[in-house]
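Lab notebook, bench 4. The sequencing result for the construct came back, and we need a structural model before the next group meeting so we can plan mutations. Quick request posted to the team channel:

Model the 3D structure of this chain.
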Amino acid sequence: MGSVRAMASTRLLCLFNAKAAGSTKTLARAGWRSVCSRRNVCSSPSRLQSCMSAWVIDQYGTNEVLKYSEDTNVPTVNSPSEVMIKVHAASLNPLDISMRGGYGASLLKLRRDPMSVMDNDSEFPLILGRDVSGVVVDCGSEVTHFVPGDEVWAAVPPWKQGSLAEFVTLTEYEVSHKPKSLSHTEAASIPYVANTALSALVNAGGLCRDSSSNKRVLITGGSGGVGTFSIQLLKAWGAHVTVTCSQNAEGLVRGLGADEVVDYTAGDAAEQLEMMEKFDMILDNVGGEMEQLAMGLLKPWSGAKYVTLVTPLLLNTDSMGLLDGTFHAGFTLHSKAIQNLISNGVFYRWGFYAPDGPALDEVSSLVDAGKILPVVEAQFPFTQVPQAFQKLEDGHARGKTVVRVAEEDDRQAEGLVQETAEVEQEVQETAKQH
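Done. Here's the predicted structure in token form:
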């Protein structure tokens, strides 16, 4: 009964209930049919338009560099394995704020274009936004898993143009079918944090569905996007989860399934953690002093792992250059890994986002089974992207901040559904009269 209450209370913290999600999904599908009818095409919109609306940056800086543009080039399907997605909703991550300020600029520019090391071509304009939920409108010739009209979700790699735009193009291996039980607004809150958490927990942490039962896991900074997803995933896998967060987020993380919660603002937080039974794994979303404390919280000489998502790699390449920065980061990782392995037999590792459409397929199944719920703290219309960035920048996240991109299409879809209902009612009344 307690788990049922927790599930219900968590759903209240989320943006929509299942009924609303179902109705929104219907509207989204109707909206896509409406758009196709209006444009008289069900594949690439670029055949009739070359420009789209998007929020872009032409330089790095604060919120003032965000610009709304209606003449951004529509991305095209240039590879046989690519799909073009009409964006219905996007969401923001702390990485978007960092990238707006130039974080990772050197390495990401090289990833976008390896030849850029030989020239000084600008990477601008850039479109931010790492999460997308929408509808496929065009596919490359070798795409086998998707067709136009499919509702999909994906995490957009940081080296690609983002989702704060009408359209985005990705490879089919980065895309997954959206959970049927979620609206686009709900779905957009999950992909990037899911791929990041899975990469950290599975690739770096060595956990999986079959090996997590009764494992003791500590998640620091557990009320943000990665934290709220990781709590639910680990509980679905049978792990015992302890979370650090502020006192006013305790209800949220307990509702998501956290077994124990420590208020990091309390003066005795470190003492509370040290008095607990040792952990098999720590997922650190905080860094700083927590890294030093965490090493003493792990089970010694038993294969325990510390995985941090706060790494110096991109900061180093930005400040030292690509070669020196990469070498310095690698040396730091190697030194800490050896030191901790020798001193107490624990593994020190860095976690990174990794694009993975098939992994999102598994997450979609867990979502539709009710094991993972979207946690949306705030939503903004497409016209208020700077306000959405400011909300995220204020800190103390309690879930995700979502941007509704296709609001106009949703209104048109709602009108279409209403018209259809009225026509059906008229037909029924006419049938009765006859």
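The chain has 15 helices and 16 strands.
Will bring this to the meeting.
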